[in-house]
Amino acid sequence: MRTPVTKTPYGILQTGYAHAQGIYGEGITVAVIDTGIFPHRDLQKRIIANADFLQRRKMPYDGNGHGTHIAGIIGSAGIANGHYIGVAPKCSLVSIRILDGNGNGKIEYMLEGIHWILENHKQYHIRIVNISIGALEQVTKDRDEKLIRAVESLWDAGLVVIVAAGNRGPEKSSVTAPGTSPKVITVGASDDYNSVYFHRRMRNNYSGRGPTKNCIVKPEIVAPGFNILSCRNSKNGYVTRSGTSMSTPFVSGAIALLLERYPSMTNRDVKLALYQSATDLGLPKEQQGWGLLNIPALLNHTEA
Hints:
Layout: H1 15-20, E1 29-34, E2 47-52, H2 66-75, E3 92-97, H3 107-124, E4 126-131, H4 141-156, E5 160-164, E6 185-189, E7 196-198, E8 201-203, E9 221-223, E10 228-231, E11 238-241, H5 244-261, H6 267-277, H7 285-288, H8 295-299
Parallel strand pairs: 1-3, 1-4, 2-3, 4-5, 5-6, 6-9
Antiparallel strand pairs: 7-8, 10-11
Helix pairs in contact: 2-5, 3-4
């Protein structure tokens, strides 16, 4: 069934269940490593910090729109038109800008951004890091491993790290780094049977598949990624985008809800809760992992 673009596209994951319970992600900060976050009306008052590793701008900025779209899925408050509400509309956001207006960047920028988070996560109460990007460039194996070690340092610091599986499926072992790390939570698209324009051609079944080259099952979980409506890089605008980049912030937003409800949970607790609450879609493990993100089941998880 085609994922509808409606006034509340996030309802496909029963986000309304959390909001009806008075759970909005309040008190939880999500860092978004991406093209930046534009101060859209739905987001601007909750962008509590900005770190720009390209132009060193002091104010939030997004010349591409990808990062703003991600941030909207996580936490749009629906102010601009009263309808388009994100998964965790009261969470706080931190913008880590490492990609330019064309969506290009270097591993050095990513490493700087990760180091900034490690240095500042306590100050801004960052609990979750969303990485809706894959390998930034053609790199050697050593540099690839350096990137993976860097994201694992975030996990080792106690942060929940959510990474896109990438859009290079359907071949096996097509999950992109740093989603190949065994520690982080890697997210695929549950609806990649829909055709999307990627890499200059129409493609479907694009969501990165596991296992990794080290035989680790990936992705861990899947969420919708087709024609997702969210904030664009303008004051009031919205736009639809597709890909595992869009699937990933659904999970980040859901975890913000979970951590508001169970603030003492560790990142390992979060991973276990996702595993125990996911809905089995009956697909191969290398495609769906544990299954589809299920927010009501996740929030009814009993804290260990």
